[in-house]
Amino acid sequence: MIKVMLVEDQRLFREGVEALISNTDDIEVIGMAESGESAIELLQHEQPDVVLMDIHMAEMDGIKTTVYIKENHPSIKVVMLTSVAEEELVIRGINVGADGFLLKDLYPDNLTQSIRDAARGQSVLSGKVATILVNKIRELTLDKKQILGKRLENRGMNLTARELDIAYLFMDGCSNKKIAQKLFLGEGTIKNYISEVYSKLNIRNRHEAVDYLKNLLK
Fold first, then answer.
1. Extents of the domains making up the chain
2. For position 147, what pLDDT does the model report?
3. Neighbours of 160 (CB within 10 A)
4. Looking at domain 143-216, does it have CATH number 1.10.10.10?
């Protein structure tokens, strides 16, 4: 039998999950807490296999509580729950040792299967959370120019390879003459390319274009 602790400050959701789990033959809820502090207190008396942890809670949130659990009860699996997949929180949760990250709108059978998978030592992720991690990995493996191109594409701005080269160089502070030297092109050709970049960005001058491109990379 897989023993689960549910840490969630919304009573309706907490009791709904408990009712769902009670219909399974291999999972049982051995404790429920409405805050990180009460979860830590409960852990003095109960030893769950899996903790379902709401990430958003007052005072001691899900991330802080997960840190405590992983430092003091490393064998317990922690699956974080959230209503919205925010990149910063997902990365922080994974970094502190969470064994999974699920959105609360998942289907009931997906939740129970995720509990089983987590108890077996597997990492469990909702689709949107997995997408965030995939994109983050791509960013880490792409250089800045490639990231810039991807982020422009995401906004419907499709620059050619040469336009992207030139946009990146003038964003980096290169003059038209310097860009021409680097790319072995004439300055007039560079000016034409830059005009095309402005048109695709719907921007009228270099200063605005540089600010826009730099903001995309932040």
1. 2-137, 143-216
2. 85
3. 13
4. yes
Residues 41, 62 contacting (CB under 8 angstroms): no
pLDDT tens-place string over residues 135-171 = 777 777 668 888 888 889 888 999 999 999 999 999 9
DSSP 3-state of 83: coil
Distance between CA 30 and CA 49 in Å, rounded? 10
Q: Which residues make beta-bridge pairs with 31? A: 5
Which residues, 6+ apart, have CB-to-CB distance to 82 below 8 Å? 54, 55, 56, 89, 101, 102, 103, 104
Architecture of domain 2-137: 3-Layer(aba) Sandwich (3.40)
Distance CA 63, CA 93 (A): 6
- To which H or E segment does residue 3 belong? strand 2-7
CA nearest to 119, candidates 77, 167, 165: 77
Chain length of the chain: 218
Of 193, 215, 203, 92, which Cα lies nearest the Cα of 147? 215
